[in-house]
Amino acid sequence: MQPTDYKMLLEQAKAITAGEPDLIANLSNLSALVYETLNDVNWVGFYLTRAPNTLVLGPFQGKVACLRIPFGRGVCGTAATTRETQLVIDVHEFEGHIACDAASNSEVVVPLIVDGEVVGVFDLDSPLVGRFTQDDADGLTALGRFIEQLNWR
């Protein structure tokens, strides 16, 4: 499998969001862009902080997903609590993993922080154990830093 060109992906993300102020429209297109660009992923999307310490399903590509995830639960909730990207080689070895799709076996979750507050997470799942590498986590974290610059108001 050829490594993903995250520099090119970031440039594409900037191009498709340029001039569009609507957050949901931008997150929708970004989830589609990443879903279509990365190989061997079965879910790409966002959970947004919509209640105190609770992530609520946002724009995504893939199968039906969990609607709400408390901070501190599962990979997404852990990313929100720790404010650190979570790279999980095998989700079945992650204590407290929430199985929204039984076909998912590895995951990367990037917390999105704006003005010191966790506004959501950027979540990617794969049916392959070990699909994501540290290079993927770093590239997706860089994309997350760009996403934080979108219009969250």
From TrEMBL:
PROSITE patterns: UPF0067. GO terms for molecular function: L-methionine-(R)-S-oxide reductase activity. Residues 27-149 form the GAF domain. Belongs to the free Met sulfoxide reductase family. It comes from Pseudidiomarina marina. This is GAF domain-containing protein. InterPro entries: FRMsr_CS, GAF, GAF-like_dom_sf, Phosphatase_reg/MetRdx. GO terms for cellular component: cytosol.
